């Protein structure tokens, strides 16, 4: 696909299923990701959204940005609500109470709603093998409530609950590997994506939606407000995350890992870190530590890619 | 109608859910609710019930799945008790505000701690203000009948609210009683197909669960309360039509020898039947005593309750929950408030008993009656209550 990028934009639908006029911050790459997801899925979709930025910017009663059926119930249960909608529709079709219609059931949440408070509901829905797609828009902190740290916040990043203090310089733990956790449920499809790579993102979402059974797509969603970068740098910083190996793009199809975008050589992580205010306090030691971790994590990922299909 | 059969109440409840043509059951096991969901899963696995049984990983997800399935227009059921209700609490409130007609059986059990699996009403009282229609059953037959009633009322387009059917854990769930099942024709006549006003479907996109800014939030709350209050005519109609089918007439407030009685017991749930026996014995001994049984807890039947107790000099309220540091029992508090502006308000004495299934016998209720007669009005204030039988 990457070789056809020059034509790819012409193949993308011009229709928008997430309407303009939302209330996201300037330069929000999360709502951009959401727009691409909606574009990729089209109109035959039912969306269950968690509480969070994407919910709050799109549904101030009595208005909505959603041109497809959409439900929000609470913060930690998007996967459970999506699984209920999927099962309810399936039984109604089976009983002849609804006509058959190929519909994608999408559960979506941020990194907090996925890897922290919503992890149990997601694990349950994946384990029960509902035919649904779950998308995590990962902006690496609780941005909606004011940039508090989550388990997806990267090591060293300053947030309002992991501030760059004299005793503890920012986040002291490493980012939870949520795609790996999803993949451990032995589901048909897991992928990572980033809104700086829109065609790759949409292709993965389409592939995920076409799978029978649960699929999980984890999208790094640059947040200029929380990452302390100028709004016009969101796409560039997303690219740096991938180009430095901080956020590798890959997919896991029926247990088989495959890198979807690789570089002859990664750029140093310092380029990514220096671009963002949340990392401005990092010492050379800490940058080195992060570089070492990124290198070893990437090696492990490549080792998995080398494994034969397990399932 | 079929013959009466001896069956465990939980099994009968599950059979009623099956006969109601449920589409989705989402539940997590908790004592004493388990026999109901076990039987439903058996029915699904044996191919006797065409429904999705979703064995979720928690009660929070149970209610969340129910929200999703109800929103797409599936007839939806769940069942829980105490801690499970507490865990799903957040979503219980949301289900009502989203007007999702989910039916839930609450097998009433004590709230921890200390941990107790046994029966009282501390769980349901924790969600008193959640916005659900809340009814109580006294015996197995009432449970069966009220499963049909619950779906019928919840899904009525004039109501579209979730319904919680309370039955006492163990005392009802685990006993075998003679129960008359409905025949299929009666169910079909009484319970139309679920035809929601809105459903999540690509053919007609709707947004459900939008958030409310302060400029509109108050209006949504007023509208929700109006919806719950104006469910009353549909509730009454559903009971009247149920009487036409079964011959059993239910009402929001039911009475027993109350017309001429100076003293009235007021009860809710299965203890009502024991109190009825006490009332009969006391009357045989010459006491002027009767009974008022609250079946409908929300929306609270203010008019019917005031009518039922008019002329009584004393009301003995049996509570099976405690409002710590507050007015004693929650039922007594409500009843006192309901009668505050009456010209001749009766003296209300409040007995708290039957916590965690501790036995309360006919003799105990008779003893409460004797004790209540001796309590002067000034010692029956809002905060005065007697925890019957407690070892101090």
Provide a brief overview of the structure.
With 311 residues, chain A is α/β, with parallel strands linked by helices. Chain A is 38% helix and 13% strand. Chain A is globular.
Shape of chain B: globular
The major pleated sheet of chain A works out as: 8 strands, mixed
Cα(first) to Cα(last) distance of chain A is: 26 Å
Distance between the termini of chain B: 51 Å
Order of helices and strands of chain B: EHEHEHEHHEHEHEEHEHHEEHEEHEHEHE
Main sheet strand line-up of chain A? 2-1-3-4-6-5-7-8
What is the quaternary state of this protein? heterodimer
How big a fraction of the residues of chain B is strand? 15-25%
> Which stretches of chain B are poorly predicted, pLDDT < 50 over at least 5 residues?
none
Main beta-sheet annotation of chain B? 7 strands, mixed
- Counted by DSSP, the helix tally of chain A is 12
Structural class of chain B: alpha/beta
In which order are the strands of the major sheet of chain B placed?
3-2-4-5-7-6-13
From the helix content, strand content and strand pairing of chain A, which structural class follows?
Answer: alpha/beta
Rg estimate of chain B, integer Å: 21 Å
Number of strands of chain B: 16
Order of helices and strands of chain A: HHEHEHEHHEHEHEHHEEHH
